[in-house]
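Hi X.,

You mentioned you wanted examples for the new student's onboarding notes, showing what a folding record looks like when two proteins sit in one file. Here is a clean example. The first protein comes first, with its sequence line followed by its structure tokens.
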Amino acid sequence: AWLRGSVCCAGRCRRTIGPAKPRESIGTAPPSHDERGAAPWMPPAAASVVRVNTLLVNHYAGSPALGVEYRSYYLAREWVRLGHRVLIVGATFSHVRTRQPAAGDETIDGIAYRWLPTPAYQGNGVGRVWNIWRFLAQLWRLAPRLAAEFRPVAAIASSTYPMDIWVAPRIARLARAKLVYEVHDLWPLSPIELSGMSPRHPFIRLCQAAEDAACRDADAVVSMLPKVHDHMAAQGLGSRRLTIVPNAIETDEWNGAAASPGDDVAVAGASHHRAGTSLHWVRAAEHACCRPFAHP
């Protein structure tokens, strides 16, 4: 219930990023039981709300000032506005961001971020695999501290690739929290179908083992993809543990957007590559130009 009804968005807006805090000054004293997770580095919560501490692992997490991925930011921002506390753990280097953060901790719009240092890479070769390994190895070692300081009620594995499902359960187990697996892309199916990788490739087999573990061990699975029921069922996931939470937009950030009076404006958010199916948007636009838009 804490996840359903939240708002996520692929839009962009201007926000001010607070100064990074040195890691040594964080969590100097463990929180008391009635202040569950109320470490001094976390933002204050509304007194009238039962606070839920959510730890979200997303290697590629971003923010409006850093660039994509935005989903984790917008979900977390809405949870914080409801009075909850969120800690996002991400890597200092991601190929999808426009700007890379410094290692350490900072607060962005009330959301606590912890950036783990990882090496830069180009492409999808050994360098990216090494980047993933460094991130997961550090997170594994950091798990006891995260569980003790932040005391999450839910630990979410949300790093596009599925291998973080082997680290997030360690945090969940130590904190006695619920484990949630979030599906971004269908790995290993996406690399097989879109990149032509062999199902027998060692990396693909690693991804398959991780996906199997997620479907087996997660208390809940959340997918932004609306048509994954059959695929996830084939991996052994029952429909009662699967919830669809698609991407959306923050309408307040589009108010005042420039447009001529009387114009209908359609905005499509998609990556310009094979997986983004940009051609479908072009054909839809051609079709729309020949007939009036239908208004609800």
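Then the second protein repeats the pattern, sequence line and then tokens:
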Amino acid sequence: GGNVVHPFQAMLDYTFAYMSAGLAGLVRKQVMVPNWKQTLFISLAALFVSLASYAQSIETKMVSHALSFLDVPYVANTLEMDGEEELVINCDEVDCTTFVEYVMALAKTPEQANGDISETAFAENLTKIRYRNGKIDGYTSRLHYVSDWINNGLRNGLIEDITAANSPYSTSLKLNYMTTHPSNYKQLANSPENVATMKKIENSLTGSEYHFLPKEKLGHNGNLWIKNGDIICFTTNIAGLDVSHMGIAFYADSKLTLIHASSTEKKVVVSKISLAQMLQQNDNVVGIRVLRVK
């Protein structure tokens, strides 16, 4: 009598815990009732309902699509084409930003009955993510500064800023990197018009405040409010710049790691060390901004 857990229940609990660890994010709920058969039935029912909803969750989609890019080569400047600005889709070569954009667009594009996704719907989602208010209107309509990219995502309901609700630390933007280094950018080098437009964009963003988590405040095991599939942006102390790197949060072996397009490893990888260690090893990184896809 009483609340005795049957061996079958114990096995189920272990399986559930194991799956939770593997799927990281699935909430384990233990149901305790005197009748072990009823316990088993309720637990299995809860498990299948949880798995069904979890399989459809945006965080699962973000992680699964991110992992599907592993070993894809890191190539910079794949969006810099000659001629008029147009949507570039190149999932075979990515940098840290385009990798996040492709994963996010895939996660937001529903699967069709045959399991594929509509290329048209994917392109539409990518345009909304990459361009100011989803409209392609020349080079300067692309969201070059990550702060601008974030603001666009917040304004259009694509993402939410998790940092703002969970970290009291804030700072203000000072942006001028692109216009003070025009030779670094193909579309700025020979276009005073584009430089002038970018300067207006920089000025409009400069002075605005944002929340961040200082790198010293991030534990090896992550933070409870950082979830699988969250977008992690590295805030930087490089003069005139806001963000130096980005990737996707992934809990592995009880530590928070980063799935990212690595310029040093020249491909998409899961970091071998924890995100906290990555940040500590980079003197140019001040902290992180954490965003969640909606």
